[in-house]
Request: fold
Amino acid sequence: MEKFTIKVENRLATIEAEAVQWTAPEFEKAVLEGKPKVAVFDCDGTLWRGDSGSGFMTWSLEQGVVSRSASDWMDERYRAYQAGQVGEEAICGEMVQVYAGLRDQELRAAAETYAHKFVPGRIFVEMAALVAEMQKAGTEIWAVSSTNRWVVAAGLRAFGIPEERVLAAEVAVCDGVITSELVDVPTGEGKAVALKRVGLSAPDAVFGNSLHDLAMLKLGRRAYPVNPSPALQKVAAQLGWGCFRPATAEADTTTVHGE
Reply:
């Protein structure tokens, strides 16, 4: 009897650890019925597949956008990050600082080229449709990302999200030249801090895919984990949040930053 009881308890624990999984129609209905006035989205893994930050970094280094010495330094730092020797916030900042010395217009042009070639085919169709419906309903859309702001802003043009509503990793620009002075690196708690800084202390709806989005998900009146990492899905179950996994996410084999 004792063994049976233990098995039942283990089964109940497993059931409790599973977050509710919405279908696309259920997800869209849940979001739109909430009539959000302000909504906030993470980008990589939430609006599109993969990691545009590391993708752009690799592409730009291959294209010779930065010097060979800067390229070698960044490659070494990223390998250290993958080995767990460099933290998330540090690497996200360095992936923007590596472009110090370039003119702002040069990096903008490179980001536009990359986004035009690589982002459209990775967009989650269901998320693009949802954003469009929300915009039709008058929802103010913001995006928060730890990825290079130039790249994120370029990729978000496909969603009609203006650059002034993009909070992402960036460095200061002086006289048209990119510096190494960090302005912001919104990741983890930093995402919630960035939102509060622009007056969004309690957005109506927040969407994210990893534990790096947890602080801002908790900030929202309603939280919507999208394509959640295993770690975020576990937290979502504990907090009673429903989750949505876009059908197109099944093709995603690109690793995103951490959990």
Observations:
- The two ends are 40 Å apart (CA to CA).
- The chain is about 45% helix and 15% strand.
- The chain has one domain: 20-251.
- Strands lie at 21-22, 38-41, 140-148, 166-174, 177-184, 205-208, 222-225, 243-244.
